[in-house]
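Q: I'm a student working through a structural biology exercise. My instructor gave each of us a protein and asked us to get a predicted structure, then write a short paragraph describing it. Mine is Colipase isoform X4. I'm not confident about reading structure output yet, so if you can add a plain explanation after the tokens, that would really help. Here is the sequence I was given:
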Amino acid sequence: MFQISLKDAGELCLNSVQCKSKCCHRETGLSLARCAPKASENSECSAWTLYGVYYKCPCERGLTCEVDKTIVGSITNTNFGICLDVGSSMRRKKKERRKRRTRSSSCRIMAQRWWRSF
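A: Happy to help. First, here is the predicted structure for Colipase isoform X4. I'll explain a few features afterward.
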């Protein structure tokens, strides 16, 4: 039976399906593509591509590549983004909102006490 062995980081590749990491990466249009690890949090990334070869690897599992997905960026290979943990950024936003509410309510209480002092 025919058996396919996946390639390790640094080995030459033609498509991401050949790599253990599922990222076949090339530096420039003229360079040879090699298997590379997926992008970690806060690293540059590319959205999924039909071609299977990336200038920036897609994000690790659990992260999202926040990128402008316009057709122009896809054609010119400039649709790079940053890998973000969507869950942690949502928790951070909730925490910030809570802080703002607490600050505004404490200011209101201080103003009420100030007016009562007259």
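A: Here are two points you could use in your paragraph. Strands lie at 24-25, 34-35, 44-46, 64-66, 80-84. The domain at 16-113 is CATH 2.10.80.10 (Lipase, subunit A). It's a good idea to check both against the output above yourself.
Q: Great, thank you!
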